[in-house]
Design a protein that fits this description.
Helix content is 37%, strand content 16%. The protein contains five helices and five strands; from the N terminus they run E-H-H-E-H-E-H-E-E-H. The model has no long low-confidence stretch (mean pLDDT 90). The chain has a five-stranded parallel β-sheet with strand order 2-1-3-4-5, sandwiched between helices. By secondary structure, the chain is of the alpha/beta class. It has one domain: Rossmann fold (3-Layer(aba) Sandwich), CATH 3.40.50.9100. The longest helix is centred in the N-terminal third of the chain and has 15 residues. Keywords: Amino-acid biosynthesis, Aromatic amino acid biosynthesis, Lyase. InterPro entries: DHquinase_II, DHquinase_II_CS, DHquinase_II_sf. Homododecamer. Pathway: Metabolic intermediate biosynthesis; chorismate biosynthesis; chorismate from D-erythrose 4-phosphate and phosphoenolpyruvate: step 3/7.
Amino acid sequence: MTKPVYVLNGPNLNLLGIREPHIYGSTTLADIEAMCRAKAEALGMPIEFRQTNSEGTLVDWIHEAIKGGAGIVINPAGYSFNSVPILDALKVFRWPIIELHISNIHKREAIYHTSYVSYAATAVIAGLGAHGYPVALECIAEMLKQGEPGR
């Protein structure tokens, strides 16, 4: 595989490890990136691992993936629940998209129960903690191996 899988992270995920550890655990985003890079190497899959607190930057990265990505793993964080621009950009992407949440959003307050991103996602992983990231990469690798389009 020559095209990378984009692993995109939204706002406040740079604070993992110190932000609400009772919800998100003590694993840092750097730890998650290391886990993803190790899994991607084992799968022979290049990745682009990124984090931003800016909605526009996240949209720009999705546009970049549209032009040259094999898949997207996206943890849009708070943008999951209110970003039509992110949804619209993802709807153009024709390869697998896995929406990922560290916590189980369905066990949390009602505001977290409806994700706009889910309307474009091939699959959703929620509640596996940081371990959801390598699982998502395994799933994308399998989908690409089977030649499955995103939708």
